[in-house]
Amino acid sequence: MQRMRSPVDSAIAANRFGLGARPGDLADIGRDPRAWLTAQLAGEPASVDYPGLRSTPQILTDALQIRREREAARRAVKMSEEAAATDSAGLLADVMKLGQLYRPLYVSEATARLQTAVGSDRPFIERLTYFWANHFAVSIDKALVLGIAGSFEREAIRTHVLGSFTDMLLAVERHPAMLLYLDNQQSIGPDSPLAQRAARRRVKAKLGINENLAREILELHTLGVNGGYAQADVTSFAQVISGWSIGGGTGRLASGPPGEFLFRAELHEPGTKSLLGRRYADEGYAQGEAVLRDLARSPATARHLATKLARHFIADEPPAAAVERLTRAFLASNGDLPTVYRALIDSPEAWAQPLSKFKTPTDYVVSSYRALALPVLEGKGALAGFEVLGQRTWSPGSPAGWPDTGADWNGASAVMKRVEWADAVGQRVGGMHDAAQLAPQLLGATLSEATRTAVAHAASAAQALTLLLAAPEFMRR
Description:
With 477 residues, the protein is mostly helical. It has a domain at 184-297. 55% of the residues lie in helices and 3% in strands. It contains 23 helices and 4 strands. It has helices at residues 9-17, 25-29, 33-39, 56-75, 81-119, 123-135, 149-157, 165-174, 176-181, 193-200, 212-221, 231-240, 285-297, 299-313, 320-332, 337-345, 349-352, 361-372, 384-388, 412-429, 435-443, 449-456, 461-469, and strands at 244-246, 261-263, 273-275, 278-280. Helix 15 (320-332) packs antiparallel against helix 16. The protein is globular and about 85 Å long.
């Protein structure tokens, strides 16, 4: 039996499923919030349109050129002690050149991301994009990822957010950002053709399997930490995806289109591999793809993803019934993501408790921009709020991504920083808004009488806006 609609449903749709209401949004959502959300699943995801955005191959081609120029300079100089000192200075210059290339790209990508979220008429799709980008987290704290974290989200996540999980998984694990972040381009099989050549020539080379990507695929991206795999599976899988690399390079390994995925057979550990009770014949790249396709269809993967979706959209402690419903939808549809999203929309648990989720800093900043129609200016200024509040764009502390429970974000110090940020916003634009009229348009039936009264009796327009942005209802979704 379908639950009767509640006056709070429009606010839940806009603020929990979306990225925060804009003036007029709750009226547009009207009496059928579920239909409003479902309609957003039609059509292709919106593209990110912003000056200066480039593809990953274009960016990495330029980075490769910097490296090639440096290596050419090294070959032209005999490496005496004096030349070695010159070479060290040259390496520093290379780092500076890469920074000059990457930093403006990062700012443009992060600004474009915010601009798209603030102006979107399909905020449910934007939140889903954010969810999956955090699920498949990469970090700009690794210098090689700084310039391509944004293109990774656009190319591997956004384009597949309304497709199948299998397609998204394959796109993510082949993307240069993920390969570089988890060092898979450095993974070389001990019995690979390259290792065998080095042994014949008695060349001392730093060879070995890197397990980073294999471990995170199993632990974070698919099965989950309790998904039934063992260390032997991690090692076997790492051997399977050895050779998953990036085109370009220098010296003898220079091959393939720069900045694009490349399977390097000379790095691949040969042989049939056993993984999770199944055997996979050595078919080069296809061996790794076969494993990923099986992982994408696993019941453990379905439950892991269902749990994360329920935690993100419903409550820090995911309701068991909702997790089961999403798991069944995933398995029955072979990982069709819109089918899973519709099951989420239809879950009564998602509508039962308004304001059950504490906003992350990203949620808080984006919802404030949407609420006040704040302009997203070019340059670093628009990104300052994320850094001040502790969630710099594409900078999680680990491959596990940013945490997704209130306890991780609602400490006294963190809340005080939000109040200070809200006060700064109120001082800057408070005179442009009537917070008393704005409050019900943003919070709907979740607006408390205490907040309504505080805003109405504020000493100034700036203070009224600060009180609205600092209200408990505005900090939750």
